[in-house]
Amino acid sequence: MQLYLDSFGAYLFVRNGMFAVRVKSGGEQLFAVRQVGAILLTAGTGMSSDAVLLAAAENIPLLLIDANTHKPLAQLGSGRSVSLASIRRNQAIFSKSRDGYAWAAGVLSVKVERQMALLQTVAGWGKAPPQYAERLPTTLKTMAAQARALKNWSPPPGNFVAAIAAERLRGQEGTASRVYFQQLACYLDGRLDFTGRQGRPAYDPFNALLNYLYGMMYTAVHLAALKSGLDPFMAALHADQFGAKPTLVYDMVEPFRPWADEVALLLAADPLMSTESYFLPDPDGRGLWLSGHGKGAVLEAMLGYLKTPTPFDGRNVRRSIQVDLEAQKLAVFLKDYGET
Question: Which stretches of the chain are assigned E, i.e. beta strand?
Answer without folding.
Answer: 2-5, 11-15, 18-22, 28-31, 38-41, 46-47, 62-65, 72-76, 279-281, 288-290, 309-312, 315-318
